[in-house]
Design a protein that fits this description.
Shape: globular
Strand content: 5-15%
Distance between the termini: 15 Å
Order of helices and strands: HHEHHEHEHHHEHHHHH
Strand order of the largest sheet: 3-2-1-4
Number of helices: 13
Radius of gyration: 19 Å
Helix content: 40-55%
Number of strands: 4
């Protein structure tokens, strides 16, 4: 095995942040969000809590004792698994000042309503069967969640926290008007390497850190990010690392 391959295997198998470095990153992120809050005279932070690693880390980072304003957490399941619901409950009760599960969209006929545009697309010469309904529904769910969060932020003079990470941003793995909030504490943190190290330092539950990442939108049968991407986050993060050529 050559030296380059050995380096690749080492990077893939190890976390890149030690405890001290992870804590330094955490302190800088908390300082940045507190400064933003003060400069913009905000009175609350609003967070969509999914039960996944990203939202758990953002919740832990943005507790009131670090920001000075209440953290309002909302779980909006829309087909989430029972395990994700339980994990979201734990995150909400552990880190948020106020937390509720919002099911207002569950019995709404909005998916049938939006399919009413099928006829218009077909008049324009497109076959709607070429565009999977699972993707349509996944994007719509993401946007409905964001509508809910922004309405709550409006009512509380607050800011919607983004839970997007650097790996998702680099791949374009997000829904326009459905993911990106006002402020992204982990926007520059890679999911494959750095974020797990930060999560351990934050005290996030082991099962949340180690579970297969999922957006919970049921776009694929097994409901995982890897199934949609065709690769895991470590592999994706690795492609953006610069390795020596000699």
């Amino acid at each position: 095995m050559n030296t380059l391959q050995t380096m690749i295997d080492k990077i893939r198998d190890e976390q890149t942040l030690d405890s001290e470095t992870a804590q330094n990153v955490i302190n800088k992120m908390r300082s940045a969000i507190k400064t933003y809050i003060e400069e913009n005279n905000l009175k609350s932070l609003v967070l969509g809590v999914s039960g996944g690693l990203d939202s758990a880390c953002v919740a832990a980072l943005c507790q009131k004792k670090y920001t000075g304003v209440p953290l309002i957490g909302v779980s909006i399941p829309m087909n989430s698994t029972n395990s994700h619901k339980e994990q979201a409950q734990w995150v909400g009760k552990t880190y948020c000042d106020v937390f509720e599960e919002f099911d207002g969209w569950d019995n709404n006929d909005i998916f049938s309503v939006i399919e009413g545009t099928d006829a218009l697309a077909e008049k324009a010469g497109f076959d709607v069967a070429d565009f999977p309904k699972s993707i349509l529904q996944g994007n719509l769910k993401a946007r409905l969640r964001m509508i809910t969060l922004y309405d709550l932020a409006r009512k509380t003079n607050g800011l919607v926290l983004s839970t997007d990470n650097l790996s998702e941003f680099q791949m374009g793995f997000w829904t326009i008007c459905g993911d990106v909030g006002d402020f992204g504490p982990i926007q520059n943190i890679g999911k494959g390497f750095e974020l797990p190290s930060i999560a351990y330092e934050l005290g996030i539950r082991e099962d949340i850190i180690s579970q297969a990442p999922s957006d919970g939108l049921m776009v694929t049968e097994d409901n995982t990010d890897e199934a949609q991407l065709g690769a895991n986050y470590k592999a994706v993060s690795y492609t953006h690392l610069t390795l020596p050529t000699k």
